[in-house]
Amino acid sequence: MEKTNNSSCLSQSTKFSHHPLNSKRRERIPHVKWYQRENFIHLTLEISNCKTPEIRLDADNLVFRGQGNPDMLFYELNITFLHPVNLQKTNYSIHSRVVELKFEKSIPSWWTRLVKPKEHQHWLRIDFQNWKDEDETEEETNKSERENYRQNTSGWSKHIAENIAKGSHLCPLGISVMSGSMTKEKGLPTIHQESGLTGINVYNYCTTYQDSDNEFISDLEED
User: Most buried of the four, 33, 174, 187, 197, by CB within 10 Å?
Assistant: First the structure.
């Protein structure tokens, strides 16, 4: 990144102005690619060698003027966003081939389009390399949550095997061992073998241990 300008404290009608541009000069509209996430939009203006652009920004309006490309032509982009953006969290970066702008949305949401007019904008196209639909981001979130779940439950097998060894009445496998449905002859619980706790005697449990499963329930008492 050759040059970065961050606007950390922007007010309404903020203006980055590095040099005056002649309003009578014929200015072209640059080609623009865009993509979004729920909380921001990102624009890529395809203007090379744009050293000192002029950028005006309101909550829902962007005016960009700059000179660049091999012939050093003048470009202007004037758009009204579909929804307002947050002026306090806006920045742009100047590269050798493009100018990138990133705007945080005032209200996180998925926009149906970038600009307010519904008509086709010939200069605007989707940045397919970075584009993701709402469903795709939800799937990424779900995948991340599943990975976190696997990490958090990786010791679950060990936990069950330890409960069996302690004779916990709350563990289904422990109940199976204590009830006689699972014995040494019938084989050890697979979960015990997979956990690596082969040194624990799962049959050495205390049959007199009191827990909530043995409590008297008055509602079930026969008359």
Answer: 174
| CA distance linking residue 203 with residue 192, whole number of Å | 12
Q: Which two tokens stand for residue 142?
A: 């779900």
- What domains does the chain contain, in order, with CATH numbers? 3-132 (2.60.40.790), 156-213 (no CATH)
Three-state DSSP class for 115? strand
Q: Exposed e or buried b for every residue in 36-55, given b needs 16+ CB within 10 A?
A: beeebbebbbbbeebeebbb
Tens-digit pLDDT profile for residues 29-64: 999 999 999 999 999 999 999 999 999 999 999 999
DSSP 3-state assignment of 61?
strand
Evaluate if residue 1 carries a pLDDT over 50: no
The pTM of the full predicted model, rounded to 2 decimals, is: 0.56
SS3 call for 44:
strand
Which residue(s) pair with 64 in the sheet?
Answer: 55, 77
User: Which of the 8 DSSP states describes residue 174?
Assistant: H
Residue 79: which of 128, 29, 25 has the closest Cα?
Answer: 29
Please give the span between the terminal C-alpha atoms of the chain, in angstroms, as a whole number: 84
- Give the three-state DSSP class for 51: coil
Residue 62: closest CA among 97, 106, 102: 102
Residue 98's CB is within 10 A of a number of other CB atoms, namely 19
Q: 117 CB contacts (<8 Å, ≥6 apart)?
A: 80
